[in-house]
Design brief:
With 284 residues, the protein is of the alpha+beta class. It has a single domain (3-110, 130-283), classed as Acyl-CoA thioesterase, double hotdog domain (Porin). The chain contains six helices and twelve strands. Helix 2 (36-48) runs antiparallel to helix 5. The longest helix is centred in the first third of the chain and has 13 residues, at 36-48. It is globular and about 50 Å long. The termini are far apart.
Length: 284
């Protein structure tokens, strides 16, 4: 297990501060704002701590303010409903008394029903793809010291791009992008923790898909981009420490907002989770 993953698992182990109240550590570092997947994953953990035995089936979050990665976050959970099959929770994450995220989380007892799924895209297997570090290596000299530090830091999620574009000199590259991902070490066999780490991982690159058709990236001059909301649906049990294909599509962008959908497939082609995110993308 990498140190980065060990730290992430530690930060997902929230401290109870009162009835239905929890505190989660920030990731620290030099980022100017909290990584959205970090606080969303912690919100899922907070909601799950208020019930026993039900796995989450969906989370819908709004990012209200850019959280400070060097501060802890306080999570307040409201128990909206506890039914025979479903339970619903509302979570508010705050720093310094100001809300930075609100999320609704729904949990569902397993039952039998209809089954169908979207087909997995035909892509190269992970062992045939370049690692993130090997891909970024020749490009680091093009980056500012701040951007270079972000790109080479140890990550709790291992990424292998399948169809990467140049970060500094991109060209329009269509509405689809794909990469393989997995936790950079073993994650305990706890369904809620597996889902929380997957929620963290699901925030990777969704917003970059919005810029891909226009030949822009987060490092393009004059680009300002921020996530506005994020949703994830868990369809089936999965292992986040096994390779998952994360396939993105951006169907629309307008009015400085862009939408992306994502799908997680395991290596057997089973669709295990889906995501959606709308983001703000401005050209200054």
């Amino acid at each position: 297990m990498t140190e980065a993953l060990a730290n992430l698992l530690l930060m997902m182990d929230l401290e109870a501060t009162g009835p239905d109240a929890f505190r989660g550590l920030g990731p620290g570092g030099s980022r100017r704002r909290m990584f959205g997947g970090h606080v969303a994953g912690q919100a899922l953990m907070a909601a799950g701590r208020t019930l026993s035995g039900l796995p989450a089936h969906s989370l819908h979050a709004y990012f209200l303010r850019p959280g400070d990665p060097n501060q802890s976050s306080d999570f307040r959970v409201e128990r909206v409903r506890d039914g025979k099959s479903f339970a619903t929770r509302l979570v508010t994450a705050s720093q310094q008394g100001e809300p930075i995220l609100t999320a609704s989380v729904s949990f569902h007892a397993a039952e039998r029903g209809f089954e169908h799924q979207k087909a997995m895209p035909q892509v190269k297997p992970p062992e045939a793809c370049i690692s993130w570090d090997d891909w970024m290596g020749p490009r680091l000299a093009q980056l500012s010291p701040e951007a270079r530090a972000q790109m080479v830091r140890e990550r709790p999620i291992e990424l292998r791009p399948i169809d990467p574009i140049a970060m500094r000199d991109p060209v329009p590259s269509g509405r689809f992008q794909h990469f393989w991902c997995r936790a950079s070490g073993r994650v305990p066999d706890d369904a809620l923790l597996q889902q929380a780490v997957a929620t963290y991982a699901s925030d990777h690159a969704l917003l970059s898909a919005v810029m891909r058709p226009h030949g822009r990236t987060f490092l393009s001059q004059g680009i300002m981009a921020a996530s506005l909301d994020h949703s994830i649906w868990f369809h089936r049990p999965f292992k986040i420490d096994a390779w998952l294909l994360y396939a993105h599509e951006t169907p629309a962008a307008f009015g400085a907002r862009g939408l992306s959908f994502g799908h997680f497939f395991d290596q057997q082609g089973v669709l295990v989770a889906s995501t959606a995110q709308e983001g703000l993308v401005r050209e200054r």
